[in-house]
Each structure stands twice: as C-alpha cells, then as structure tokens.
Design brief:
Length: 81
C-alpha cells in the first residue's frame, strides 16, 4: 500500500509549496525580511520615546521591504519557467 503525504492534499497545494520553497531558501530574502522587522520595531520604539528619527527608520523599513518583495517575486517567477 502506498503512503500519501498528508501535508499535500491536492495538486494546488503542491504548486503553492513549489512556488514558496525557493523564496524560503534564499538568504538575501531572509536578511531583507529580518532587517524590515528590526527597522519597524526600531521605528516604533523611537516614536514611543518621541525621537524624530522614527521617520527615517520607517522609510528605510518600507524601502527594504519593497526590495525583498521584488526579490521574492523574481525568485517565484524564475522557478515557474
């Protein structure tokens, strides 16, 4: 009797898994993700303590996030071809 992988229920689930895996393996994407998270937390803390540099941290966070999304999109479509 053949064992089935219960995590993958149908073909659509397998396609989603295949699309996300190259992004999750990419170290540059993880660096951008973690840097975005760190900059966002920094912006919140700076705003809490009424420091004006929170705006800079927020702008950098959005910029790094946009670069990470672009990289993830590139990796996703590159693997589909």
């Amino acid at each position: 009797m053949k064992k089935e992988n219960k995590a993958v229920r149908n073909k659509d689930d397998m396609e989603v898994y295949n699309v996300n895996w190259p992004v999750l393996k990419d170290k540059k994407w993880w660096i951008s993700f973690l840097l975005t998270l760190l900059l966002s937390i920094t912006a919140i803390l700076l705003a809490t303590f009424e420091n004006e540099f929170w705006v800079l941290a927020l702008i950098l966070s959005i910029s790094v996030s946009a670069a990470g999304v672009k990289r993830a999109t590139t990796l996703t479509y590159k693997t589909r071809e």
